[in-house]
Amino acid sequence: MQIFEANNPKQFNDFLISQNASVLQSWQWGEFQKRIGRKVWRVLLSSNTGKDLAAATIVRMPLPRGKSYLYCPRGPVIAASPHLAKIWQLFLDKLSDLTVTEKPIFLRIDPSVESYSEGFRLEDIGFQKVAWEIQPKTTQCLNLKVSEADLLHAMKPKTRYNINLAQRKGVVVEHGNDGKKTKLFWELVKETVQRDSFSPHPYIYYLNLIEVLGKSGSAELILASYQNRPLAGAIVAFFGSSAIYLHGASSDRLRSAMAPYLVQWESILESKKRGCAIYDFGGTAPEGAVNHPWLGITRFKKGFGGQEVNFIGAYDLPLDKKWYWLYKVARGLNRII
After folding, report:
1. Which single residue of 4, 20, 262, 323 could bond 105 by disulfide (Cβ 3.0 to 4.6 Å)?
2. What HEC string does the chain produce?
C-alpha cells in the first residue's frame, strides 16, 4: 500500500463517490475551505496494484492563542477491507508529516459510518471519544428512489397538507446562486438567529460556499417568497448519489404561508431531479431525546418521512497532550466553541 497527497480531482472524487462519501470530503469542499482562508490537505491511499482504498480531506482549524487542530469532516473514507488497522496506521503515519510543520493540538474525525468491523476500535489506535460534535451524530435520510406520489404518501398528513397549502397560497420558489439571493438568504439567517439564539457563520461564509460549490454544480440556493417577501431558504449540496440540507433559514413573518415546507419539498424534488438516491435532512435529535435543542426542527424534518441514521460520532487524537488537556478544560468552561 502507498499513501500520497492527492492532486487529481477526478480520481479523488470518483473514489469518494464509489463509497457514498459526504460532500464534506469532496474536492469542491476543500476548495471552499481554501477560499475562506484555511489550509487543506488531501490524501489518497492505494494498493500496490493501483486500487484506491482510502481518502481524506483534512482542514486546519484555528484556535485561540495561535493554536490549531486538524479536522477531517465526515472522514476519513475507507473502503471495506480486511486490512483496516493497517490502512488506519498508514493514514496516521502520513498525518505525522503535518504535525511537524503545523504543530496541531489534535486531529478530530467524525466518519460517516455507523460502526466499524468487529475487532477494530478507534480507541486502540489512540483516539478518544468526545461528546461535542461538529457534524451531527444523528440525522434523517430519505430514500429518493421512489415516485413523487410515494414520497408524498409517506409524509405525515400535516406536512403534506402544509406543502399543498403553501402552493395554494401562491408561495413562489426560486433557485439560484447569485449574490442577490445570497444577501436575501443572509437576511433570513439573521432573523433565524434572533429567534432561535444560535451562532451563525458570517455572511462571507455563505457567500463563498454558494459561489464555490454552486460554480461546480455541487450546491443550490433555494428561496421561497410570498407577496414578494422572502420567507424561507435552504442551501442544499449534491455529491454523487446523495444530497444534504446544509443550511436553512426562515422568517417569522407570514408563517401561515408555510414557506419552509415548500422549500424543503422543492429541495427534495431538485435532489431527485439530479439523480440523487438519498436526501439527508442534516442534524436531528436522537430518538427518545428529552429537552434537546433540536426537538422542534426534528419534528419538522421527520414529518417528511425517511429513516434515522446514527453515526459513531466525533473522536479526537491528541497530538500535543499538554495543550489538549488545556483545550478540554477550556472547552468544558465554554471558552472554546
Report:
1. 323
2. CEEEECCCHHHHHHHHHHCCCCHHHCHHHHHHHHHCCCCEEEEEEECCCCCEEEEEEEEEEECHHHCEEEEECCCCEECCCCCHHHHHHHHHHHHHHHHHHHCCCEEEECCCCCCCCCCCCHHHHCCEECCCCCCCCEEEEEECCCCHHHHHHHCCHHHHHHHHHHHHHCCEEEECCCHHHHHHHHHHHHHHHHHHCCCCCCHHHHHHHHHHHHHCCCEEEEEEEECCEEEEEEEEEEECCEEEEEEEEECCCCHHHCHHHHHHHHHHHHHHHCCCCEEEEEECCCCCCCCCCCHHHHHHHHCCCCEEEECCCCEEEECCHHHHHHHHHHHHCCCCC
